[in-house]
Design goal:
CATH topology of the largest domain: Carbamate kinase
CATH architecture of the largest domain: 3-Layer(aba) Sandwich
CATH class of the largest domain: Alpha Beta
InterPro entries: AceGlu_kinase-like_sf, Asp/Glu/Uridylate_kinase, Carb_kinase
Order of helices and strands: EHEHHEEEHEEEHEEEHEEEEHHEHE
Protein name: Carbamate kinase
GO molecular function: carbamate kinase activity
Strand order of the largest sheet: 3-9-2-1-12-16-17-15
Catalytic activity: hydrogencarbonate + NH4(+) + ATP = carbamoyl phosphate + ADP + H2O + H(+)
Keywords: Arginine metabolism, Kinase, Transferase
Strand content: 15-25%
Length: about 325
Amino acid sequence: MSQRIVVALGGNAILTDDPSAQGQMEALRQTSKKLMELIKQGHQLVITHGNGPQVGNLLLQQAAADSEKNPAMPLDTAVAMTQGSIGYWLQNMMSEALVQEGIEKQVASVITQVVVDENDEAFANPTKPVGPFLSEEEAKEEEAKTGDKFVEDSGRGYRKVVPSPMPQSIVEYPAINAMIENDIITISGGGGGIPVKDTPQGYIGLEAVIDKDWTSAKLAELVEADYLLILTGVDNVYVNYNTPDQEKVEEVSIDRMKAWIDEDQFDPGSMLPKVEAAVSFVENSTNADARAVITSLENIEDFFKGGSATVITK
């Protein structure tokens, strides 16, 4: 049976060891081939993606070239620019994979604005890592030079952090829904969407980066998806991780998952936002059968053929 699936791609689906355009397109070529299995099974796909490394690198490029005649672009514009570039790469790689499979479908990217509250406490407490990993010494030099804040990220080095407000609504979701209804594979919500505030004069961009899993959850809710599929580096979520009592989580209710969140079972820098976003989608969806799945890109075909993953249900 055909299902409406919002697929949230993790960073490893886009960026590997080669940060060039060609390297990222090749990573997306391999990702697209894996997503073809869902298309071949008859499912409708809405694809979201992150942009943390890309937007951080773009900000460095902007800062390096900043001048009176060529001023650096603000963060909301940089998010839009990376939405465009990654969307362009992904729709081309998806189209290539469709041709190889002999499937006639259109793929389109939507520059997506996400409404946030300008009074969200995130603006006073930046926490979202963007850009490349730096050594502690390099991070301190950048802090002194730019005034930006850097924090240690999951033991891999130091990264710049920016505000990450919660998504309230998605401006373009009616258009996205119309595209889904017309069986168009839709790429939207890239990088968590462009953060904007809603004013009587229209939408105004804000300097922030929204967590892409939270935006994916909001989008899945608004388009009444059957599944929110959050792809990460592991096949399953674990509780009591790295202890003798480590337990793989397979099918679990939102109430049980909330209890584990309250027990601080999940790393705030990696798994926690994914789990919280997944719970939010299932809890707020008007679709009685809505499910959120957290698993790896490599595991999605097996899961939809009866295999295992972490599945959150009502």
